[in-house]
Write a structure and sequence with these properties.
Elements: E1 8-12, H1 16-27, E2 31-35, H2 39-48, E3 65-67, H3 70-74, E4 79-82, H4 89-96, E5 106-109, H5 122-129, E6 138-142, H6 147-150, E7 156-161, H7 165-175, E8 180-185, H8 188-211, H9 215-235, H10 246-257, H11 262-271, H12 276-281, H13 288-303, H14 308-318, H15 323-331
Parallel strand pairs: 1-2, 1-4, 2-3, 4-5, 5-6, 7-8
Antiparallel strand pairs: 6-7
Length: 341
């Protein structure tokens, strides 16, 4: 595998996270291209060098090439970063497959979700839609990492996971610097599920905020939410200890507590009595936890896993359940011994 120095890289997706990661890679001395699928938006981004909708006030270095042409962005690269929302991963990967050749570049997924229709993790969607790629060329990068902070070089730590530890190490070295620390893992299942499932618990945390509950409630919610993540993760083949790390507990904490969290915001608005459709219509960025709640609810039934918080969030989001009633039902469940996992 090529040395992770001076790479030719492309970040596919010019949202907040894609823009922030392009800036990390550029700061590390890589030749960096940022792909924005809308021609007019790409032209504007290239001209003003500021992602006004997602990262206002952050200036994109002129050395980062910006294009709307996927073939131009993806050709002759050593590393491709898929930084589009989870529900768009399939369509972008299908288009990317036209240009991806056997023994092509490493593909890094940074989306945090589970596909609704297939219940596949993002790395599985990529492998299914790009026939020429092998699983040892796919990495998932995940952890507590708000774009608003990474783009301003606020110290952050995340995890690069792949079934091939050498590939994970390659990505680790490509991204790491003095403000962006990267650990490596071979548990890509656990890392992907941690990043996806914590968003559901963050919606629940937001509901607590919106409904007027306190710190005690959110402090109880997070470890019990982690239990649900572990239960499902283990049934799907993950190592339960992965959920105690950055991509599990770390990401859970920041997403439940941060003012930057879109998922917490959605829950907060629901807790105040607003309708889901109204909340989503006014948002520029995607709250992955909404779609992930559908997938996790189906997976819990498929694997026979008890996930009471997830089930109540599902009912609040999609069945019109009163948020306070949902919480009280959780509180009045049959008393049990505390069991982690």
């Amino acid at each position: 595998m090529k040395s992770p120095e001076g790479l030719r890289v492309a970040v596919l997706g010019a949202g907040g996270w894609g823009t922030a990661l392009a800036m990390v890679l550029y700061a590390n001395g890589h030749q960096t291209t940022l792909w924005e699928y809308r021609e007019e938006a790409a032209y504007k981004l290239d001209r003003i060098r500021e992602n006004i909708d997602f990262l206002p006030g952050v200036i994109i270095p002129k050395g980062i090439k910006i294009t709307h042409q996927l073939d131009v962005a993806s050709q002759d690269k050593d590393l491709l970063v898929l930084a589009v929302p989870s529900h768009i991963i399939r369509s972008v990967s299908e288009n990317l497959s036209k240009f991806y050749k056997p023994d092509g570049p490493v593909v890094v997924n940074v989306a945090k979700g589970i596909e609704n229709e297939t219940l596949l993790r993002m790395s599985q969607v990529i492998q299914q839609t790009i026939p020429a790629i092998t699983d040892d060329k796919i990495v998932t990068l995940s952890g507590p990492s708000h774009a608003e902070e990474v783009s301003r070089q606020i110290p952050t730590a995340i995890v690069a996971a792949s079934v091939n530890i050498e590939t994970a190490e390659f990505v680790q070295h490509a991204f790491k610097n003095n403000f962006f620390r990267v650990y490596r893992s071979q548990d890509i299942i656990g890392v992907e599920l941690g990043g996806a499932l914590k968003n559901i618990i963050a919606v629940a945390a937001g509901i607590c905020d919106g409904a007027g509950f306190g710190d005690n409630t959110k402090a109880a919610l997070q470890p019990r939410g982690l239990v649900e993540m572990v239960r499902l993760g283990v049934q799907m083949g993950a190592n339960k200890l992965t959920f105690a790390g950055l991509s599990g507990m770390g990401d859970l904490i920041v997403t439940c507590m941060s003012r930057h969290s879109r998922n917490r915001y959605v829950g907060e608005q629901m807790g105040k009595g607003r309708k889901l459709d109204d909340v989503l219509k006014e948002m520029v960025m995607v709250a992955e936890g909404v779609k992930t709640t559908r997938s996790a609810y189906q997976l819990s039934r498929q694997f026979g896993v008890e996930m009471p918080i997830t089930h109540q969030v599902y009912q609040v989001l999609f069945e019109g359940r009163n948020p306070k009633e949902a919480l009280y039902e959780l509180m009045l469940r049959e008393p049990k011994e505390e069991n982690w996992g």
